[in-house]
Amino acid sequence: MSYLKKNVVASNEIVKIEPEKSPIFLILKWIWGILGCWILLIPTIQAISETVKYCTTEYLVTDKHVMEKYGWISTHTDEIKLDKIENVTVEYTFFGKIFNYADLCIQGAGYNHVYFTNIKSAEAVKKQINELR
To answer: Which helix (H) or strand (E) holds 128?
Structure first.
């Protein structure tokens, strides 16, 4: 069971969407990490860091909230109530456009925002979030 479902989601909430992360960007990071390892190992360290981030990040949309959790040793969660969402933006990178993954920036009232990074079929997730609002 995921951390969000176990510790954050209230018992009266229904999980509506679990956005799926795309592993394609990790493959690209590891290719660069292996090819560029002779440059002070920085690309390889970045690939390891992105892999840990990928494995320890969760996204969840319930009938009341949009939530993200990230972190391994220290855990951080962010959430926005669905009725407080003002805007949902999809941001594609060059490879994201080719392999159909993107980042979602969900902006709430005030300075609240939640980022879903490297999400498969991000436009469909955006549409589902807007329908739930």
So the answer is: helix 122-132
Cα dist from 75 to 36, 56, 67, 81, whole Å: 31, 9, 13, 20
Tokens of 64: 């009341």
Which CATH number goes with the domain that contains 59?
2.30.29.30
Residue 22 gets which letter from DSSP? P
- H or E element in which residue 105 lies: strand 101-108
What confidence tens digit (pLDDT) does each residue in 63-122 have? 888 888 888 888 888 888 888 888 999 999 898 888 889 999 999 887 788 889 889 888
CA distance 25 to 46: 12
- On whether residue 35 sits in a domain, the answer given is yes
Report the domain count for the chain.
1
What is the phi/psi pair of residue 110, to 5°?
A: 75, -135
Whether 65 is covered by a domain: the verdict is yes
